[in-house]
């Protein structure tokens, strides 16, 4: 892997939006060096193989005769779509709703910050991204309650909706923080809609096949343990709708 991309590959904290901006900055610094850029574009999707925006950024720039301009175009389109999606979600979500969310999507965060809602947030172990979002919401005065991941299927029955971001969407379904699938199953059983916020950069092309998911360190769960530690699961399209 290109040395400039190793920090992206090792990043186990930030989501797709943050890593997309970081990747774009790296590409912009090398967009006038053809050979360097081609190696970066080949390796970029491998850094986080279950995050669609990195794959799509690399493909968009590779296919363009003007790579520097293409990087800026991709980011501008992403920003425009995010703003439109946030506004659309805000129009559809009513003040006073009780919303459950899992992990820490920047799109979900921006929607919640603009509404007067009651939010249930999972811890989102092992990295506890949901706890970070909980703290952000509490600081702004939003009614937020933290729950353990395993409690989400129980509490979802008392919610008006589940609101999620997306690391990627393909023919196989939604790639999101592990634990999303059981939440969506429980919501389906309870008759609670599951809404997903996703820009076009989150969609893999038809027929795309995911690479094997990288296994993460066991010490994130328990020191000196034998474990299975994966960050993502796949939720079938029948269990959610795009907002």
Could you list the spans in which at least 5 consecutive residues all have pLDDT below 50?
none
SS-based class: alpha/beta
Q: Gap between N and C termini, in Å?
A: 36 Å
* Structural domain tally: 2
Give me some keywords for this one:
9 helices, three-stranded antiparallel sheet, alpha/beta, 243 residues, Four Helix Bundle (Hemerythrin (Met), subunit A), Rossmann fold, six-stranded parallel sheet, single chain, 2 domains, 43% helix
What does this structure look like?
The chain is α/β, with parallel strands linked by helices. The chain is built from nine helices and nine strands. The protein has helices at residues 6-10, 16-29, 34-47, 52-62, 67-92, 106-113, 129-139, 152-155, 180-190, and strands spanning 98-101, 118-122, 143-147, 161-164, 168-170, 173-177, 193-196, 232-235, 241-242. The strands form two sheets. It has a six-stranded parallel beta sheet, sandwiched between helices. Helix 4 (52-62) packs antiparallel against helix 5 (67-92) and helix 5 packs across helix 6. The longest helix is centred in the N-terminal third of the chain and has 26 residues, at 67-92.
